[in-house]
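Translate sequence into structure tokens.
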Amino acid sequence: ASLATTRGRHTTVLGAALNVESYTGQDVPAFDYRYTIPAAFAQYDVDLGERLALSASGRADAHSEYGVFFNPRLSARYRLTDSWTVRASAGTGTFAPTPLTEETEATGLRPVVIPEPLRAERARSASIDVGGSAGPVEVIAALFASRIAHPLMARVAASDPALVELVNAAEPTVTAGADAMLRLRLADIVTTASVT
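Result follows.
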């Protein structure tokens, strides 16, 4: 549920949510779980003139297994011209671990072991993009980066190669990159090219 109010150039959104996540396995009941996650969130948007808009938001989640997490996000949009815009965003995120990963989807849960309690993954990310059009050409180009602490990983168990361990990696996962998209409109024909 949420409530939004707008006064002039200012918009505020307040809300609350309740998520319930559960899993019941017929063959491997040791991995059954049920999480209750109440949350509260808020967002504030303001237009600072005709070109610049700012947004700040935050969300607090009280996870029944992994504790309380607060994740803020800031973003900005600047209109260079009537046709070109720059946007930037930075924030954090939290992901509670479950035994259902890409690796365990392939192997099933029977060979999976969790040798020590798992920690929630904590992510930080940022991005900036430029987009606009000139005549029949539309262009969007972006830079992005993220860092995930305590990433969940699957590895072959040292004690038994037939088993798969789910653990938090000791080192964070860092990703950075760029992508671009070009779209050309000529009459009824639209051609799109992209690269990452």
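Note: The chain has a mean pLDDT of 94.
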